Amino acid sequence: MSFFAAIFDSLLITPILTILSIIFLASLGKSFGVRRFYIKVLLKIFEYGRQNIENFRNSTRINFNISGSSENESLPLSPHHEDDCDPNLKEQTVTQNGKCVQAQANGNGLSGNTVISRDTLILLPEGESVSNGKIKQQTTDSNEVKDDIQQDDQTFEFDLSNCLDYVKAGVEAIIEDEVTSRFEAEELKNWNLLTRTNRYYEFISWRLSFIWFCGFFIRYFVLMPTRVFVCFVGVAWMIVTQALVGMIPMEEARRYFNDIAFKIAFRIVCRSLSAVVTIHNKEYRPKNCGFCVANHTTPIDIAILSTDCSFSLIGQRHGGFLGVLQRALARASPHIWFERAEAKDRLAVAQRLRQHVSDPTNPPILIFPEGTCINNTSVMQFKKGSFEVGGVIYPVAIKYDPRFGDPFWNSSKYSMMQYLFLMMTSWAIVCDVWYLPPMYRQEGESAIVFANRVKSVIAKQGGLIDLVWDGNLKRNKPKESWKEKQQEEFSKRLKGE
Question: What's the pLDDT at 167?
Answer without folding.
Answer: 79
